[in-house]
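Let's practice the habit of predicting before peeking. Look at the sequence and jot down your guess about where helices and strands might fall. Then scroll down.
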Amino acid sequence: MEVFDTMAWPSGIELASFGNDDILALARYFELSLPAGYSEEALLEEWLGLKAIAKNLPFSMLCKNALAQHYRFPLLSRLVAVVVCVPISTSCCERGFSAMNRIRTDERTKLSNEVINMLMMTAVNGVAVTEYDPQPAIQHWYLTSSGRRFSHVYTCAQVPPQAHARAGLRKEKMGALYMEEAVTQKPPIPSYREPEEILKDCIMNPPDSLL
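Done guessing? Here is the structure:
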């Protein structure tokens, strides 16, 4: 891949023949990506033309020129398209293995391959947790057979203001769903009072146990 590093290209006459062997070796290795019966001479001519217009350009711009002018570089553009897909390190694979180890633990051994694949795609390519909006997924789950089993418990609604909450009902937030539960057996939670107010009230109206 170093042949595409324009910073390492020689100058002068040496540039004309630079990288010919490497380009031919890449073409033979990725032969299936090139048209059947392609001409190596035509490939080298395209390589010479690319070096003429891409000298001193970074690798990204070199690939962009080759791909944008595919009509001018019909063979080389296909070869470059394959080269840019080859990872330059194994860090991407290592991140995938780490994500799989975090997902498939000893307590989750019954996950199917399909579920593991979807979870890994989300873990590796998904958005950050702080940017993720779970409401569409929760609404989708609620409409499936698994979610409909809890239709008598959960209600799809937005969070009501605390001041306008219905009396006698307690709402516990669970994502975008809220569980309603009667609280007739429990006494209402008294409103917050400052310690000074409580002490003053005890002095003015002492409880019966102290009389």
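How did you do? DSSP finds ten helices and three strands in the chain.
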